[in-house]
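Q: Two folds, back to back.
A: First:
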Amino acid sequence: SVDCSFSRGVCDWKQDADDDFDWNPADRDKGDGYYMAVPAFVGHKNDIGRLKLLLTDLKPKSSYCLIFSYRLAGDKVGKLRVFLANKKTAPVWEENKGKDEKWRTGKIEIFQGAETTNSVTFESERGKGKTGEIGVDNVILISGLCPED
């Protein structure tokens, strides 16, 4: 498994230069490192911020599971989507509202065919809300299929 968490991970993260705003580090409650967040008041409605995870060493014809923590805190905070590089058009995962401010776990299967996925993009779309944030943390890539809960 590869630890791509932001404070001590080994992965290569890049801010997209062609989007509307950047993701920023935010301190965790327990003070153990940080996560990446987009506060609700950044930008204008429907503005987009993309954070890209570059994947260099994935083997062809194998499966991986991307596991991450996320939260959408606040009323009408916006959308969080995940895109795989070789399937640019549609998100492979999307969430647009949090029931509460709790962190939840997202899982995405990545199947490597002849074309390998060389990046995963976390995209935040600004909503109408003025409070709260969209956050992502604890991004881990494991070999094989995603485990059942």
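A: Second:
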Amino acid sequence: QSLPQQKLLTWLSVLECVEVFAEMGTARVWGEMGRWTIIVLIQLAKAIFRLLLLLWYKAGIQTSPPIVPLNREQQQPLHPQDMEDDSSGKDQTYVGRRSSRVVRSLQSTPSLQSRHWGSPQQREESQSRRAEEMNKPPTPLGLQETIAESIYVTRPLLHLLSLGVWGQRSWKPWLLSAVLDISSLSLLSDLKDLNRRERAELRRRTILLLYYLLRSPFYDRYSEGRILLLLRLLADYVPGVGFVTRKWALLLYPYFCWVEKNQGSWA
């Protein structure tokens, strides 16, 4: 990746980390008008950055978060002592005479910080696969896939625009957002030979469609009563579940109330 592309990804990650805090802080200081202003500005900046990555830098399907968090356990390098042992040519494994089982020899036991439970061959193969997967370039997108990704990138802005035109209680913003999400996923479904990161991103977007069941006005008219009824039935008829469901009800009710009042964060 070039340096400007890395900077765009960094700024996108920063915006995604601070957008909720910025929204809540602005609402506390400048009220409702300030909250919606900061929501529009953040979503506009994110859309511009993502469109630049998509159209100018050909970044392909973009993940959320833009920069994948580093798994330090998987990326743990070999200890210098272990590298010296490898370079000295010592046998790392021992094959049992009767069982023919391959085990690590005592001479090649790594330090506690870099110790693992697999054989050295398995570790080398897994590290090589991870390195190959991380270094694999993004899948090139055709015209159809570029349009689908552009729809997904601009959907928050269209959702905010529809909220301003029809209001938060209207079904039209809910339907518009759902249609855009489903259209983007259906257009991207024909794309083949995706890497693991891109497949995980498409699975994440598909699972996020379930959140539409918790968004107003669908939640107010359909989901709320059924969710509370299910929790009540579990609490009354399933032994030992009542304590858990009552705790969940106490936790979820304020969350649903917050979601109902803060539709901007769902953009």
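Q: And?
A: The mean pLDDT is 80.
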